[in-house]
Amino acid sequence: MWDYTDIVKEHYRNPKNVGEILDANAIGEIGSVVCGDVLKLYLKIDENEIITDAKFQTFGCGSAIASSSVLTEMLIGKSIEDAKKITNKTIIDYLGGLPKEKIHCSVMCKEVLDECLKNYYEKKK
Amino acid sequence: MWDYTDIVKEHYRNPKNVGEILDANAIGEIGSVVCGDVLKLYLKIDENEIITDAKFQTFGCGSAIASSSVLTEMLIGKSIEDAKKITNKTIIDYLGGLPKEKIHCSVMCKEVLDECLKNYYEKKK
Amino acid sequence: MNPYEKIIYFDNNATTKTDDEVISVMLPFLGEMYGNPSSMHTFGGQVAKDIRKAREQIATALGAVLPSEIVFTSCASESSNMAVRSILESNPEKKHLITTQVEHPCVLNLFKWLERHKNYKVTYIGVDSEGQLNLDELKVSIKEDTILVACMWANNETGVIFPIKEIGKIIKEKNPNTYFFVDAVQAFGKIPVDLSDGIIDLLSISGHKFHAPKGIGALYIRNKIKLRPLLIGGHQEKSRRAGTENVAGIVAMGHAAELAVKYLEDENTRVRALRDKLEQGIISKIPYTKINGIGTERVPNTTNISFEYIEGELILLHLSDLNICASSGSACTSDTLKPSHVLDAMGVPFSFLHGSIRFSLGRYNNEKEVDYVLEIMPQIIEKLARISPFRK
Amino acid sequence: MNPYEKIIYFDNNATTKTDDEVISVMLPFLGEMYGNPSSMHTFGGQVAKDIRKAREQIATALGAVLPSEIVFTSCASESSNMAVRSILESNPEKKHLITTQVEHPCVLNLFKWLERHKNYKVTYIGVDSEGQLNLDELKVSIKEDTILVACMWANNETGVIFPIKEIGKIIKEKNPNTYFFVDAVQAFGKIPVDLSDGIIDLLSISGHKFHAPKGIGALYIRNKIKLRPLLIGGHQEKSRRAGTENVAGIVAMGHAAELAVKYLEDENTRVRALRDKLEQGIISKIPYTKINGIGTERVPNTTNISFEYIEGELILLHLSDLNICASSGSACTSDTLKPSHVLDAMGVPFSFLHGSIRFSLGRYNNEKEVDYVLEIMPQIIEKLARISPFRK
Ligand SMILES: Cc1ncc(COP(=O)(O)O)c(C=O)c1O
Ligand SMILES: Cc1ncc(COP(=O)(O)O)c(C=O)c1O
User: Fold this and answer.
1) Best substitution site from C47, C232, C235, C244 to test ligand 2's pocket, by max atoms within 8 Å of Cβ?
2) What is residue B94's three-state secondary structure?
3) Which of C187, C335, C188, C345 is nearest to C256 (CA)?
4) Mean pLDDT, residues B40-53
């Protein structure tokens, strides 16, 4: 069995910010059903480029859910500039660590965030 | 551990007819210290060619002792003609069986008997 | 925590609880009967007799084969490695092997290794969408230089039973010189395993799958076949397997084999009914659900259920939080990230593939446990469906 | 029957009684803690933690090596087969091996097999009349293509200790690319076994020789060395040894290793005194007697005594009738008819060779037992001397 930290367990048991934001102004998606990992991130970003809401939908394992959950927690209230500083390491640290086989979940979270912000700038254009 | 019958056990525990016959008129010896098996058989044969006494000395394992012991038991009172009919099979049967790795002990008993009788005829000549 | 405050153990294909009777039979050998069976004293000699008895018990449970056809090992993985390597070593000139795509890793990974490192050509026979073996494919694959066919009797993940005797006959008809090794780890104790007809050449079982402890297994090897040892050393097991005997384990497995035969009917009536109730309940209560292998013969205790777009590990973790033990395939692949090679071979769609759970019931399960799992599963799946980007 | 009406067990080199503390530590894993450590539920996950703890205990007992350097096996015979085959497989071009003439069959027979079937050239280093290794012979034997030296630390039959660290240094000085495998089965628990200096590359131990149950062993393998599995299959032991783990055995051995370190002083004081009393008593009371290896360093529990012109098996049988357990060499050769290869290598004369008895004492022996054996031995030997054609 994976050696998940209590924080990971708390987050896959009771993930925060699950669902869609219907009026999101940034949406990102990454992964594929074939590989068994799909992350979808929705952000609501205000005129001051502050993230006022974040939600996710994830098809994946416990650590994928937990990583997604803490990502949204970290994002809410942050400026885009600060959000860009989030790395997969930030997520791992927040979770108190991940089994090495599960590091890729945090990487996917970083990627879905990048996708999301790319989508935000594209929409703004 | 070897699967010795109760008869084998009885005979290595309390071997019959151990020792030398000082006035034996037939002596046989077989085996070598190198191989760890030496059997020495002494017979006293009367003028009617009846074996009146038999004794043995054996350097060997439990089944060698038991085989020697029952050989002497069988021999005492037998005529030479009857003694010649003893085979290693006779000894094995008398013992209620021997482990297959120990069959050679009974063969050596047969051989020492042959040696002994040869010695008897040589002496008579 | 589930209301019973104890484990609901539906993971009997991973390992089983040692039977209390088995424990009491083995305990003396952990305690006062600690002699070495090879020793030249009665204290050890007695232990050798107990090993002999256990060997007879196993031989009897396998359909009255000869005790000398049973070699004790430390697990079925050792049995299969020993069997396969022995056959190959005895016949070095033949280089073609056959197995199935759905074998346990202890055969599959061994064959892949032989292919990669030892110049063997391996044919991996496929299965249909129910997990049933493609016999025609097998038939055409057997060739002059096919030295060995290795095939499981029942699949650990789906419970699907292969028609092993028919397979054996096909092999021998096509090539009487091809050896037939059967992995019966998941069959023994669940369906009758009778080797008296001589169709099977070598066969492996593992004690801990039928209520003996972990760390003991056996290999059946037909008495005409010379076994070349994998562990070379002392003369134990008639020089076929070196190493001081796991006496307690051997004695335990002997008794457990006897019990397995005794409980075979319970397994095929009561346990089967529990399994059927569980899977029918789940399929009727939870939409987007699929039972893998339901269309063919299966062992009575196993059900493999796929939930569309829900990830299996996540289901297991939620079940575990409620003290319910289940599995997503074989226990020894659960640490890997790949989806089940068995379901993949069956062509299970990706949307279902990653969401597969195995419940494997057994001797100690009861209806209350099934009812509780049936009550809780819809709640778990509903909760997880909300997280999934593809559901609702 | 001896007056104690119980076994006097002087055969601890053959196997030992499982320590009561060890039994109570392992019992839960035969009972309620039956989960599979690879399972994806807490019930199994907990068990994985207990295995981790046992691995740490073994690592600590071997001188604080890394837990990842410990691989669990089913016995030392498996450990040595695995170690040797792995090294050879990783270095197929080198074809020269070195071992000693006095190894346990699990090394000796393996090397003979490699010589006969796999084209290896093997040098068997001899010993002197005390059983001590000929280091000069070793030194000149190590060549450019010597891939492995396998050597025991303490001899199971005589207890003779080889200067293993010195041997390791000789090897590495002559050829730093030669691997060094040590059979520490009879050393561990009797003398300090500290691997922290990195001199030894691979090392085997067997649980049942230090009061854990039979059926569990370990291999130490230095972390720089890749282990190629002997049992291929599931991912257990980091894919280094397939097969569901013998959890109870592993946990037991972990605890037993801790105890072995704790009892090391008892072994070297109390047990040594018992052994010394026994052998001095026998040698002074019984003529035509010889202690094999007394002139060199030996483990504290073992004495190997030869009685001239008295056959060893016969002595053992008479001892067994009195419930006294001893041995004529290694337990796993006792069913064979050949005299000890160890004593033969030492040049023990034939008149003594066939009359050798090993008494190996241990944790649970006491002085009363020694006194009784000292009382009874002269009677037995006297009785048997009367049967021998060469005595008196
Ligand atoms: C079908 C099958 N074969 C072989 C094995 C291997 O058994 P073990 O892990 O006891 O070696 C298992 C169980 O893990 C199995 O389910
Ligand atoms: C020195 C030595 N090496 C190896 C072994 C083999 O141990 P096992 O029989 O537990 O495999 C033994 C004991 O039999 C031994 O005494």
Assistant:
1) C244
2) helix
3) C188
4) 96
Neighbours of D137 (CB within 10 A): 15
Give the DSSP letter of residue C271.
I
C284 touches chain B (CB under 8 A): no
Nearest CA to C123 out of C143, C153, C94 is that of C143
Tell me if D344 sits within 8 A of D352, measured CB to CB: no
Tell me how far apart the alpha carbons of residues B61 and B109 are, in angstroms, rounded to a whole number. Answer: 13
Domains identified in chain C and CATH numbers = 8-16+264-387 (3.90.1150.10), 20-262 (3.40.640.10)
Do B123 and B112 form a contact (C-beta atoms < 8 A)? Answer: no
Would you tell me the crossing angle of helices C312-321 and C367-387 to the nearest 10 degrees? Answer: 130
CA-based torsion, B98, B104, B107, B109: positive or negative: negative
Give the CA radius of gyration of chain D.
Answer: 21
Could you say which architecture CATH assigns to the domain A6-124? Alpha-Beta Complex (3.90)
Catalytic residue positions of D?
332
Closest partner residue to D243 among C45, C75, C243, by Cβ? C75
CA torsion D171-D173-D175-D180 (nearest 10°) is: 30
D40 contact A CB<8A: yes
pLDDT digit string, tens, across residues B86-105: 999 999 999 999 999 899 99
Residue of D nearest to C1 (CA): D42
For D37-58, give the DSSP string: TTSSSHHHHHHHHHHHHHHHHH
Distance CA A61, CA B90 (A): 76
How many CA atoms within 13 Å lie on the side-chain side of D299?
31
Residue D276's identity, in one-letter code, is D
Which residues on C lie below 8 Å from B3 (Cβ)? 45
pLDDT of D392: 64
d(CA D73, CA D391) in angstroms, rounded, equals 48
Q: Taking Cα atoms as reference points, which of A83, A85, A105 lies closest to residue A95?
A: A105
Regarding the beta carbon of C243 and ligand 2, being less than 6 Å apart is answered: yes
CB atoms under 10 Å from CB of C49, counted, come to 12
The domain spans of chain B are 6-124
Low-confidence ranges of chain C (pLDDT < 50): 1, 331-335
Place of tokens 């416990």: A62
Q: How far apart are CA D32 and CA D289, in angstroms?
A: 54
Using the Cα atoms of residue D248, residue D250, residue D255 and residue D260 in order, give the sign of their dihedral. Answer: positive
Three-state secondary-structure class, residue C183: strand
Residue A15: closest C-alpha in chain C? C387
Q: Are B33 and D284 spatial neighbours (Cβ–Cβ below 8 Å)?
A: no
Element (H, E) at C360: strand C356-360
Is the Cβ of C40 closer than 8 Å to some Cβ of chain B? yes
Q: Residue D374: CB partners within 8 Å, gap ≥ 6?
A: D277, D278, D281, D282, D285
d(CA A24, CA A45): 8
Question: pLDDT band for position D332 (50/70/90)?
Answer: very low
Average pLDDT, integer, range D304-332: 89
- The yes-or-no reply on A/D contact (3 CB pairs or more, < 8 Å) is yes
Residues in chain D: 392
ipTM: 0.94
| Closest residue of chain B to D331, computed from CA coordinates | B1
User: What is chain C's percent helix, strand, coil content, to nearest 5?
Assistant: 45, 15, 40
Q: What is the DSSP letter of C260?
A: H
Name the residue among C76, C235, C320 with its Cβ closest to that of D333.
C235
Verify whether ligand 2 is closer than 6 Å to residue D100 (CB atom): no
Q: Is the dihedral of CA C127, C132, C133, C135 positive or negative?
A: negative
pLDDT band for D55, please (50, 70, 90 cuts). very high
Handedness of CA D291, D295, D296, D298 (dihedral sign): positive
Predicted confidence at residue A124, as pLDDT, reads 87
The pTM is what? 0.95
